[in-house]
Amino acid sequence: MRAGAETWEEMRKFVFEKAEMGLPFRVSVYAADEAAAQAGAAAAFARIAELNAVMSDYDSDSELSRLARTTGRAVPVSPALWTVLTHAHLFAERSDGAFDITVGPLVSLWRRARRKQELPDAALLAEMRGRVGFKKLRLDAEHRTAELLAPDMRLDLGAIAKGFACDEALAVLKKRGLPRALVGGGGDMAVGDAPPDQPGWRIEVAPLDVPDAPPPQTVLLKNCGLATSGDIFQRVEISGQRYSHIVDPRTGIGLTDHSLVTIIAPDGMTADALSTTVSVLGPERGLKLIEETPGTAAHLVRQPGAKLEFRESARWRDVPKVGAAP
Ligand code: ADP
Ligand code: MG
Q1: For residue range 286-307, what is the model confidence (pLDDT) as tens digits?
Q2: pLDDT over threshold 90, residue 190
Q3: CA–CA separation, 60 and 57 (whole Å)
């Protein structure tokens, strides 16, 4: 620590919010002076903006979009994109393609279906499924290149990039001597060292805005990632059936399982990807994957019928919680 380093009493918490990647991001940081906190948060937000310029699938100029236009050619990839692509590949392999960043064409088709409140046309669905599949994205570790093997592919990092952005923003804060920080955006967050004199950051898990919901658990986290994803809140109804914005790559259709999956993992990117993966896999296969993945824990809320169901992985019980015996 620096000479004359802050004692805990001198530190204060500062919270900053900024829209990045199309959603509000939040930086909470403990610092001795406001100027340091402000400069740190500005640098953290700048890093998120930088990553958006790499990974956005809306921005036709992003590195990701440019990569999507290079079918049949091995293209060098920037370090950040390489990290995300290789991890995405790992999650795709481990989930048998339930998690799949090549799902872009199906996601677009599904977005249109949701808007029109009409299931996609079968022929179109079959065509799009032909453009999807994680094995159609070849990654060469030696040369750090990516190659799209099928025409008209579209990569979608919507289920992994936000968690990675939180990790990177947190790393920026740490490098600036601000390790007691939390970065969150949407349902994703990365947490650093604990707040002064506390065992961890207090995070409410999956608070449900429904009448029969039990009070939410509050977990105490440090140096890890947390992500929540699912369709209890984001869904559309077509002919009496409710569908999620998460697409099952095997069918090309939104999930109908109605779940809310919260994952705690060593970092934000892993939590983000696994929350989507477990949503697609469902409770049995999903929890099995979590048990097999070191350092991860899962909390699931499902609503298959009228009643809510709760499931937890084994490691979830060991996560420190407010009000629980230590
Ligand atoms: P949220 O968008 O609420 O943070 P997720 O982290 O689960 O939720 O990400 C969902 C997004 O990921 C979708 O909007 C879509 O862009 C993309 N996606 C949908 N289905 C899949 C899938 N099976 N595998 C990977 N990405 C997906
Ligand atoms: Mg996710």
Answers
A1: 999 999 999 999 999 988 777 8
A2: yes
A3: 7
